[in-house]
Amino acid sequence: MTRRRNYLQIFCILAATSMIFGALGTGDVGLTQGQRKIKLEPSSVFHVPTPYSLAIMAQGKRIIHVAGQTPLDAKGTLVGKDNPEAQARQAFANMKAVLEAGGANMDDVVKLTIIVKNVVDVPKIGAVRREFFKEPYPAGTVFVAGLVNPDWLLEVEAAAIVY
Description:
Largest sheet: 4 strands, mixed
Strand order of the largest sheet: 3-6-4-5
CATH architecture of the largest domain: 2-Layer Sandwich
Shape: globular
Strand content: 15-25%
CATH class of the largest domain: Alpha Beta
């Protein structure tokens, strides 16, 4: 009985590990051969017509978590004081550079968080977001909060799956 229980425990651990790391094949997670990510948008959930997805299902070789990127250039100088579009372009350009340093690109981003200082800037930042991302857009969240530097209008962070 103990031997059978040990085999059962080993089997369960191997099965769980295989599912987590994709060893059972791509079909088991809903992605076909060659698909890197797909958008999940059930009809029972309202989708706001903005450049984001409700969810992204992805598989890959490694994950890159990009810490909050701000509107500072390589010398630490603020770009675009009081200009949400200029600040968004700089923050997304910083994100792109960080991703490229890890062998990724903006298409690999599956989750995006944008923190904005003023809710009225969201449409302007969203327009810039479209310059950096394409369908399927990353799953995303935008929220309003105070930022560390009072001149910053936004901060962006991301998670990317590298294939």
